[in-house]
Amino acid sequence: MTNHHFPIPNTFGMPVKARVYAEYRSVEELREFLLQFRGEKLLHIGAGSNLLFTSDFNGVILHSAMRRARCVSEDADHVLIEADNGLVLDELIAQLCDMGISGLENLSYIPGEVGASAVQNVGAYGVEAKDVIDSVRTLAVADGSERIFTNEECRYGYRDSIFKNELKGKYIITHVVYRLNKHFAPRLDYGNLRGEVGANPTPTDVREAVIRIRRQKLPEISELGSAGSFFKNPIVPREIYDEIAASYERVPHFEQDGGVKIPAAWLIEQCGWKGKSIGGAQCYPKQPLVLVNANNATPQDVMALADAICKDVQSKFGITISPEVNYI
Ligand SMILES: Cc1cc2nc3c(=O)[nH]c(=O)nc-3n(C[C@H](O)[C@H](O)[C@H](O)COP(=O)(O)OP(=O)(O)OC[C@H]3O[C@@H](n4cnc5c(N)ncnc54)[C@H](O)[C@@H]3O)c2cc1C
Questions:
Q1: Can you give the CATH number for the domain in which 91 is found?
Q2: Domain shared by 151 and 266, yes or no
Q3: Is 159 labeled as catalytic in the residue annotation?
Q4: Ligand 1 site, CB within 6 A
Q5: Range of the domain at 258
Q6: 157 and 87 share one domain
Q7: Is residue 180 part of a domain?
Q8: Which of 44, 80, 96, 297 is the least crowded, having the fewest Cβ atoms under 10 Å away?
Q9: Number of domains the chain contains
């Protein structure tokens, strides 16, 4: 008999369970849980939209039911908004757009919660969470003490932060403080966003345009399980890009961090994986960067598909692509 009873929410739709699932409604309650479960295997999750559980979880899953946001200060140009970790980021963005407060609207429709957005440094349409994060409030898992991290101390990079590296599993983000704008300066240079919004857009116009574009390209998690982009886009030395560009017509690319970023979706498509399946896991036909649970996929199906794709990209282009999704 297994003692794993509690289903773990995850957008991939993996049928996994945990020994304990504990949801807290305040920072004090979280601190009590940390004391109660000291020494046990712990994992704090948000909406489970960037996770691939490879088996049941033999430990304690923590989740926040704190879902409010408040204005902590403002001046003529900016507003500091402190949001609880368990608030769905997209709900926060909808409220902010209604108030004419801007800075997060390009991140609309990402299915995660506020806490994880500051771990993952989520990004879309030319904006990353780090661009507007002022600071992050946390509790230390070891002793429940409070610590505030400034933006610099979070050491943000592309889908990366200190909470995914040196401090992985050591701090729980309880609140994120965003520094947002009262005067709107839309950021429309990415993809076809400029063409999708009308003249003189409001934050809500940009939000709606982003949602329209995303709905055309990405699977709805209510219909098809996924964790969004499965792989990170690799940044390669210029020589590697030049070699590929000599053999293929119009290789999509962006200059970044002294190298060249090549969309992993393009590399995967060139390897012939678009629309292909292993077991119940499929490389999504409309966006090959996304792996979907097309037909009762097991974690092993998803891992086998991801491994086969990585191997082919490596042998065809000599480029290593790595998962953006967290394997648990
Ligand atoms: C359809 C779809 C589209 C997506 N589009 C995008 C996109 O455009 N851009 C993008 O960047 N991502 C995208 N994602 C990925 C995902 O939504 C983001 O990574 C999101 O930030 C994950 O949030 P979550 O609340 O689901 O976190 P989870 O997946 O539950 O957790 C992610 C990680 O954060 C940790 N964590 C969670 N909460 C806390 C906390 N409070 N304190 C400390 N650690 C914590 C977890 O332990 C885990 O390591 C997409 C996903 C899907 C399914």
A1: 3.30.465.10
A2: no
A3: yes
A4: 11, 43-51, 85, 110-113, 115-117, 119-120, 122-124, 163, 172-173, 218, 221, 226-228, 326
A5: 225-327
A6: yes
A7: yes
A8: 80
A9: 3
Structure tokens at 94: 């909808």
* Residue 199: per-residue pLDDT: 86
At 53, the amino acid letter reads: F
Name the residue of 10, 11, 49, 122 to mutate for ligand 1: max ligand atoms within 8 A of Cβ: 49
- Residue indicated by tokens 């992985």: 168
- pLDDT for the residue numbered 51: 97
Residue 1 lies in a domain: no
Q: What's residue 256's pLDDT?
A: 83
Tell me which of 119, 154, 164, 286 to substitute to probe ligand 1's pocket, judged by most ligand atoms within 8 Å of the beta carbon: 119
Pairing of strands 17-24, 51-52: unpaired
Place of tokens 């210029």: 238
Taking 70 as the pLDDT cut, the residues of the chain under it are 1-3
* Residue finishing a domain among 16, 37, 64: 64
pLDDT (0 to 100) of residue 1: 42
Q: Which ligand 1 atom sits nearest the alpha carbon of residue 44?
A: 47
Q: Does 184 fall in a domain?
A: yes
Tokens 């289903």 sit on residue = 7
* 271 within some domain: yes
CA–CA gap between residue 117 and residue 128 (Å, rounded): 9
Active site residue 324: yes
C-alpha 101 to ligand 1 mean position (Å): 23
From the candidates 105, 113, 128, 159, give the one annotated as an active-site residue.
159
Query: Which CATH number goes with the domain that contains 238?
Result: 3.90.78.10
Instruction: List pLDDT tens digits, range 85-137.
Output: 999 999 999 999 999 999 999 999 999 999 999 999 999 999 999 999 999 99
Q: Are residues 39 and 92 in the same domain?
A: no
Residue-by-residue DSSP string for 286-318: T-TTEEEE-SS--HHHHHHHHHHHHHHHHHHHS
Q: What is the pTM of this model?
A: 0.94
Which residue, of 173, 195, 217, is where some domain finishes? 217
Integer Cα distance of 227 and 66 in angstroms: 23
